[in-house]
Amino acid sequence: MLKKLSHIILALLVLVTTVGMTVSAHYCGGELKSVQLFQASASCCGAACDSCHNEIIKVKIEDDFSISTFTVDFTAYPIALPALIQLFQDSINTEEVEQIAYCKPPPLKIQRVLSDLQVYRL
Fold it and tell me: Residue 16 has what DSSP assignment?
């Protein structure tokens, strides 16, 4: 449950920061009087006074989440290519490999229980 909740919170955080959010704060006499999301804060006084001011903070990620590109210089690869081919040829052995069982398999009853506990995905 906690895992699902943390995923939801992180998804909302990413959504809010990519879409953007505006926070408006109203100060009167240097003291914070009100905070509004997505709209401008209303003045505490009926008329404009010198001690009141609003601060607007815009929260938005300016990244476009695009994959950066890179180029590969293939001039150094002709030197390493024969060594890689030889390495792959050595690792692929065409001889028949003898399989050795180092331990006995579990009894049939345990095999049945283990096969019931497993999930087979096709």
Answer: H
